[in-house]
Amino acid sequence: LRFDNRALRVLPVDADATNSVRDPVADACFSRVKPTPVDKPCMVAASESALALLGLPLSEAAERADGAEYLSGNKLPDGADPVANCYCGYQFGYFSGQLGDGAAMTLGEVVNDAGERYELQLKGAGKTPYSRTADGRKVLRSSLREFLCSEAMHSLGVPTTRAGSVVTSDSTIVRDVFYTGRPEAEQCSVITRMAPTFLRFGSFEIFKAKDPTTGRAGPSPGNLDLLNRMVDYTCNAFFKDIVDSHAPKGLPLAFPEEDGLPGPKLAGTEAGATTVFEVYKEVLRRTARMVAKWQMVGWCHGVLNTDNMSILGLTLDYGPFAFMDRFDWDFICNTSDDSGRYTYRRQPEMCRWNCKQLGVAWSPAMPGVEWEAALETAFDDEFALAHLEGARAKLGLSADADGASGDAELFESLLDTMAATGADFTRTFRTLMDLGLPAEAAVGDDLSEAEAAAVERVAAALSASLASREDLLTAIRPRIEEERVNMLLQLAPMDSRLRPHIPLLEKEAEAWVSYNRETSLSPEAKAAENKERWLAWLRRFAIRLRGEAKAAAQSDRVESMRLANPKFVLRNYLCQVAIRAAEDGDFSEARRLLARVQDPFDLDKAIPSTIGDAGVELQKSGKVRGGNLVDMSDAPPAEAKSASAAAGAAAKGAGSCNVAAAASDAAMAPAFATSYDGMPPKWACKLRVSCSS
To answer: What is the pTM assigned to this prediction?
Structure first.
């Protein structure tokens, strides 16, 4: 590997090199660290394409005898200079002060043969000055999830950091996964990940003064010289094209020539303010496009705090993420998200909120600039455009066809129909590929016989893969009891403590109206209603497709849909099978699943589409419910309630996260998962997957 650690030449490193936990780490962007060795590291899985970004062949990394030694941090390659990043963050809307890389270490910047530069990190390699009360370690389950999802998202075309490998070891650490007082020893594991930079929005919040709400400040409050230096570094290192096209000529250099980063001084100057603003707008546009991609694949991040937002618009820090099975506008993948701040529906809003906080942090670097207007012109407009483009691609629609002006509403009504009927997000879009362009089309709102037959056929296929009524009712049941909601709504106008929660209470009241209506329907009535909902939407879709018949052949349209709608995504239950097998020392399912999610659109027919025999047998044996999975439906009611409450409370304080699912069998679900694109198995509806690390 060829290291050129430019960031350490340009930005200040903490003078204290003791690697002791401390707060604050003042006037520094990095702290030098040293990985803590693990016993007998061994390779679990590696991504050939991710390692290639470093110019590292798979044979060098994964197959040589000491490859795991280097990828675990036991040995350091020549030129590595390990550091941890200092940053802050707004967590669930509240400023939390100094956070930093508590378990991640940047080994340095690797320059490949193409001249591309990537920061190489180890995650889980031991304590850093930012570990607080933790140990800097990661366990196999959380490491494997991040590794697999990084590569799955890349293969889906979603901007993301990459993961090169996951290594486990004989070293153990104790974790109380669900905070129930039953700690267990788990294997220390390390992943390698890479990105052009791991700078995040929170990196620029280390200069924040004392927050009036939380009373916390950044470790370097008011150090505007360092802020300007960081912004200049960001602009010149990662947005050079914007600097070249917008910066006035003749500005002084931001850094000495020997630092190896040519470019003008921009931040904090009137002459450079507009150029910094152009970079800020590009950050907003990239972030908007990123979250639009998330929405198009039904993926939720779970912890959209400012410390988890990449300055390059990359998906960063995989914790309580989830690809949705049954579509739900208000899907929450993080059980510590009590308020539903980071639901599927709210992800664009929260990314925008984070972009605003970045604007506040950067505002001293853009003197005289009215930067807030960019939230509408850059973020809102870019998101709307990217979301509509994604929606059209998923439905096989073109922007210049007849009826295209109503495509945004058509797509939203599709999602409403999916939510109301309990449709599977990924499988629904693949099924819609079967509604072809009409050979014989009627005129107006009436369908021809061919169109009507196609609509009936697709409606039947969709109805066959809906969630069971019991599962749907369990999922949509409001979290606060109806009597309590009504009582609190009556008291709220007169109680200053309750008044801020009126919107949440009103939403819960509306949810009870919907829930009560659903429970009043007989199974037959619900099935008939579901079918009518789908027939109504599919009729609209068939009429819209008439405009496409003039523009494209059916084969071309289906092929474009195939490349926009994955057949395989990294569902939580698939992860769970791979994790449990790996914890038992069998890495074959993890590697098999990696290959599958790296080809989400099923282009390579040689890649198996079925879970390995070991994975199926693991489910049948019941072992898949052990370790970091608890079947809450089998626990006594008091114990289940206690475990749930304890997990939520402890996770909130520790920054850990849990993914929960309804505790009921889906009537049409198989007993065991055998294929990567099948209906979720019955046991998947009972699991709680913890991402505490």
So the answer is: 0.92
